[in-house]
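Worked Example 4.2. Consider the chain below.
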Amino acid sequence: MEPICILAVCLGLFAVLGCSRQNSRPEKEDEKKKDKTEAAKDRLSAPKADLESLFSEHASIGKNRPEFDYGDEDTIIFHGYFGLFVCRRDKNGWNVFRALDLKSFGADAMQGDEYAVIDAGREMACITPSYFATDNRDPVTYCYHYGPDVMWEKRGYEPAKDELLSWSYAQSMPVQEKIDEILKKNGKDERCSNLYPVRGLGGGEYGFLVSEHRLLQSLKYGIYREKEEELTLFPLFPHGGESRKESLQTGAAALTEG
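Applying the procedure from the previous section yields the following structure tokens:
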């Protein structure tokens, strides 16, 4: 083939491919916009737990104790039949940041086939109602993002293995016994949740919940520092919005408030 013919063919192909690429760009942009629009449509309003009604009825923490799902230096997440709570620490103490009503979408069961599996992290939680139910072959998972306070549905979610929670339920007995001993010596508060290593395994600092007479409104966040043998309690629903701290030590039966 003559060089001039080869050049003409190449230029023709280039022109065709170039047009094809230019035509595909708007299509891809349209697809991205469509995905964003569909994602926005899938967002669900996060139902809020009615704390006022629960407190006015002197609600208890329930027959099954709350589960402490996650904790670090300034964020804790726990749940019970009464809802999923996200609490954060500021200069005044620990305060409720989000309170999600689990019952409104069937995720309030704490045992049995209807038990809801909850994977909670610092920024969001994945909540799967009736995960173990034999007739629930394609369970729906609700992803809850705390910051914007929104939810969306997801299918085919597989719960993640959490080494910290595995330790909490399988190997924390010696630490639990020490904490229960301190609480028994110093007042009416009783531990009502599992422990969570808030500084990681081997960090020597454990978070948990305590209550008085199993009343929901009496819930406090407890931190036990193993090396110092010190236990500190922070009310989560303080009366009148006043936050206070209680420190308990193994060497002193007195309770100190600050």
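The helical segments are 3-42, 51-56, 163-170, 173-186. The radius of gyration is 26 Å. Compare this with Example 4.1 before moving on.
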